[in-house]
Each structure stands twice: as C-alpha cells, then as structure tokens.
Task: structure prediction
Amino acid sequence: MKKIILITCLIAFFSGTAFAQLDTVRSNKNEFSIGYGHLPPSSIPLSSRIYFTPDMDHLGAFFATYTRRLTKVIGIGATYCFDPRILNYSTNGWGTNNFPEYGQPVCRLNQSSHTLMFHLKINWLNTKYVNLYSKTGIGCMAWSYHLTEYQPDLYEIVMPSNHFDYAYQITPIGIEVGTKQYAGFLQIGYGMEGMIGIGFRYGLKDREKTP
Result:
C-alpha cells in the first residue's frame, strides 16, 4: 500500500512540473543546504503490542543536500538524513495476571537511521530574493539499534532482522528567502526530511566565463 501511494505521489509530482515557470533570476549551478525536519515518519507512532507502551524521545531529522542545477528550472542531487530516537518500553496494565504492575519498565531502545536519497528539485519560480520550489527523492535507509534490557528473565526481546528499507521524500512546496548565494528555506512535505523542514542554503558562486 505504501508503494502504491508513493508511486501515485511521484506521478502527480512529475506531472506538475510541466507547469514550471521560467526563472527570472538563475540560481547558482551548485547548491548545498543543511536543515532540520520536524515529524519524520519515525516520529508517528504505529500500533504497539497490547501489553507494552513505548515512550519516545525524538529530536527530529537532520539532513544535508547537494543539488546540481541542470537548467534554470531543474536540478538533481543527493540527500543524507540522520534520524535518532530513544524508546522506553513499559507495561501498560493489560493482562494483570501476567503483568501485575502498571508502567513496569521492560527495555530501552536507542534507534537511529541513516538515509541516502537521490532527489529532483524543481525551481518553478525564481526571483531576486524569493524562490519557490518542489522536490522529490527516493533512496535507501539503514537502521541501527542499541538495546538495554531491564528484566531479561521475564521478557524476551526479539529485534528485527532487516536493517534496511526504502526511503522517500515528497515536498510539494518550499520557499527560499535570501540572495542568489545565501538563503534560508522553509518546506512542507512528507518523508525522511519531515513534514516541516527549515534550514540554510548556500550556492557556490559560478565561475565567470572567460572570452
């Protein structure tokens, strides 16, 4: 189901790029950006086991990107995301015969993910101080775990055997405010860069052509 939704969103995204406007001011050919994303997919709680409740400490996602401008409108590049979080599992009181105490600690799980994606960025409006863009990316994510068991004699913790998964980012709208070389940005989307992302973009100064 997730793959169907992702493919549908990508088709809609690429169809929308047909309406991209021509730039009035061309961006620098090479762009670097760093940012912070609030509410990546890992921060949205999934249904947990009936007897255990996770308490999550989540900072959000941190990401860095490089984009190479191919034309005035289209750019391609790579994105790296780091997403750390801590989950403290405890009993929630269900099944009192087996779990007589509510809130009994079970384990502490330190998780982090490292993601590498290739992205397409469409600058569909560039002016002197304000740029509007859309972006989509797809790639691979690697998970790492560190488990601390509080009561190994009572509970058996089974960790996932798969440490890899696909990753994606869909950003329908983003805004950059600043100059051709320096700008801050705010974007709204869904994926490894979070639902709301903020950060800083730096454009390398293009070499002047010599006659």
Observations:
- Helices lie at 2-16.
- The domain at 2-203 is CATH 2.40.160 (Porin).
- The two ends are 56 Å apart (CA to CA).
- The longest helix spans residues 2-16.
